[in-house]
User: Fold these one by one.
Assistant:
Number 1:
Amino acid sequence: MLQITWSSYSLIEEYTRKARVIRNGEIIEIDPLEKIEKVKIEDFEFEEFVSDGLRTLLESIRAEHLEERTLRWLGHLERIKVLRGLGFFKPENVEFTLKVIAPLMQYESDDFSIMEVYGRGRLNGEKKEIHYFLYDKAKDGFTSMARVTGFTAAVITRLVAEGSCIYGVISPEILGMRADDTFTRIIKELKERGITIERW
């Protein structure tokens, strides 16, 4: 199935905008393509780069080290690095660049979403590690990303309507910290809709 599931402009911005991360307890900005690494998740091989996706986590979570990494198919990031280095993504060139490369960014593949979350730290003085794995495939005419994000929003909307959840402008991690009710309900309902979520 030929598809492009993201805004081309947003995609390019991931490679040109500095990525904010926490290292040694400090928020710093780094070049997202300064280090490209290979990673294997389940039966898939990807390359990964540090992306600017922490947003509210930068302020709401006290951490010595915190970063988001985004996955791409093998070979993608080196090509992007060359295009960026040649100036194709500069503001004055990006419109023309997208006219050329956007049609080439469509691909034939089964649509899926995959995510791993690792955490390591101390809880009440005791060392703890946590690992979550999420996997989902397109189904019933919905892309996997539409399923993962849309179902999550729907569950939270129901929780607010029932009065079972705090409401207002709330960052997602705050909901996640209410593990005894909100978080548990969200995970349960996502699983009921066929989204794989495992913890170990």
Note: The mean pLDDT is 89.
Number 2:
Amino acid sequence: MTEVIAIIGGTGPQGQGLALRFAMAGVPVALGSRDGARAAEIAAELNARIGGDLITGLENGAAVAVADEMVILAVPFSAHNATLEALKPALAGKILVDIVVPLSADDPKLVDMPPEGSATEAAQALLGPDIPVIGALHNVSAHTLNNLEVAINCDILVCGNKLEPRKKVMALISKLGVTAYNAGGAQAARCIEAFTPILIRLNISKAVPFSHAGLKIWAPDT
């Protein structure tokens, strides 16, 4: 049976989009929120959209508890550390997939990196070395994730200090029909997370004839 994943902050646009995409790929999802009742409502709405029953809405702690191994963190950066502090005991034995980008509170076209260098590194420092933190899915448009009529239009860069958890996260992400690349240790998140506000800037620019763009890794012509 396919393992259950948890998405913490799952009632936001990014979390909902990922829940839809993973459920469509046959992956059961525990959608976490501080308000378990609200999570259950959102889960029912998402299941109705895709005609399925693989998404369950729960309070954050309960969602982490039912996850077999993978827990995706999709909260705003303002809630990043507090959420992890609250969930740290429950995250023992899990892999945390941190998709949070520390966008500036004053301007989403800028980042405001924490002292550790990135949200991924901040999470690893907070949780300690025994809970692997993998940074991924930073550059995917929430609009694209929720538009189920189109394929996800980007590749995914995956980073973290432990190789085996990186490989597991890459395998999970590949179920979304995208290519995941091993970007190395957690310090790579400083570059990966910082690219998100650049995409935001491009996507809202009147000089650019498209929106909701993503990153692609292109092989050279041969």
Note: Strands lie at 5-8, 29-33, 55-59, 70-73, 95-98, 133-135, 156-160, 180-182.
Number 3:
Amino acid sequence: MILVTGATGTIGSEVVRQLAARGEKVRALTRDPAKAQVPVGVEVVRGDFLDAESVAAALAGATAVFLVAVLGPADGGRDARLVERARTAGVRRIVKLSSIGTGDPDYGPFGTWHLPGEEALRSGGSEWTILRPSSFATNTLGWAEAISSGRPVPNMTGDGRQGVVDPRDVSEVAVEALTGSRHSGRTYTLTGPAAITVPDQAAAVAAVVGRPVETRDLLPDQIREQLAASGMDAAAVESVLGGLLFAREGGNSLVTDDVREALGRPARSYREWVEDHKAVFAGA
């Protein structure tokens, strides 16, 4: 039994889909099972990280866990406790979704969010794999409305380049790590094949859909306002803002070959991702 937390999110939902397609026995943890859309045969259970009893019930009988537990700066201790609960429950293998830059002081507070969970994993007691993805290609799905109305899409990172990664690659690495021991003890920094800017991404979308896509640089106060409007608390807003400004200055331009190392094939490019999601942008 493989337990997937964050089972309705960007990465978790794809992990569930890929595992089910392989015929694995999957249990999906979500706060609202009624809204979960999962493949036939997947067990859906209600659970909340703040409800220890529900987490314990979800862990019962699981041999592997995909851990998605950090949503903000206050979640690190909870993340570490989930690792310990999984081990207490007899889970043999844990794959943790972390973030690029974790442990690097240059990333500021954002680089500390996942540290407690990573440190708990490395303390031993089970097989573990840590995934540190760069910026997700799916972050640009929110551009569709602006494109449909002919407005510029927001640019929070200026001319800063990032190794934008296809979330499907991240999910596929997670599935490989959950179903085999070859990746045990590894920390993968997962990026796309090239470091690209937001204008580069806009140009890729424009080429695929056949219409111009302009960008509009946002000032720090405008970014702060948008982050707050998304529901983040003040500490999370400042941490994320710091990471975005760091990326704007070129600090998040790292590109690795870890996707190839884990999967035996190159990482998908952002252009490939856009082509696969053309309907989202063209339909706009």
Note: The CA atoms of residues 209 and 279 lie 9 Å apart.
Number 4:
Amino acid sequence: MLRRSVIKGLSAAAASVPFISAKTVLAQSPDEAYLAYVHPELRPMAKQFLPMLRNQTPPSLANLKRDRLMVEQYGGPPAEVPHEKRVIAGRDGAPPVTIYIVNGGKAGTRPALLHMHGGGFTSGSARGSLGGLLKTAQELDCLAVSVEYRLAPETTYRGSVEDNYAALKWLHGNARSLGVDPARIGIMGESAGGGHAALLAITARDRGEIPVAFQCLIYPMLDDRTGTSRKVPAHIGRLLWTPMSNRFGWQCFLGRTPGLASGPIAGVPARVQNLNGLPPMFIGVGSIDLFVDEDVDYAQRLNAAGVTTELVVVPGAYHGFDAQTDTKVVSQFNAAKIAALKLGLGIA
């Protein structure tokens, strides 16, 4: 059954700055008018982003090194959290895969999360995601593993899918020694990491070797047609992740022009026709995120396939909005995510 939710509550301060009427929008500058679509609590940060985005240069292979550095700087230095780094064997002769384990070292049979970081398929790192992952693992009292999968365009989806599958197989195969219940392993990711998690759930189902208990997809990147052959309204996908960025990310990931009438099914979750038998899912996205339509559509298709699905759409939230942890709307969103993970992983 599909549970559809919208985060509605505003703090007292935010309630005094409501969504702006269309009449007011007409009298404002373009940037001010755009803020009418942004959640009141998220507007201060949006105001800082808009001038920077006006001067954004198109992503390209020539600029990729610079853009990767910018992603690292935006996220800040990797949090100094306790972790264990391991290097495991790749699949079928592929290079070794680095993984990071957090909140481990406990006896018993706890659930576990396998995490894939975001970054548009072309940037980001598992090491840089450990701070937020540790907080989630502590709230759930579970072990968590983050995968340093190979980035595009150095590899296409074929390589990174195998990296993530190798990590899942390692986690399942070593569950007992890690204090993990092999029947309660969930997968999770944000943005491109959410796309990776969706692909991993499909791959695990198709191979039939390893059970996945739950998938948690946060504004996942699921469809190469968004912003290419499928246009979006002007107010959607303007902040942080744009159609221009999306085209480049999918081009690198697929190794071909994105949005074509026929695409590599294995690399694009939204193009996979058979969604039967996938694990239960939580999917959360903002209403002005570039991915909102593809995420809602994916949730509805899973529901139609008989997959238990919870969908949360946050009004006025753009891509990556949940980095603003000092807002009530983000607290509500994170609470919904944690509640879904507890249910999906069988945590009382």
Note: The chain has a mean pLDDT of 90.
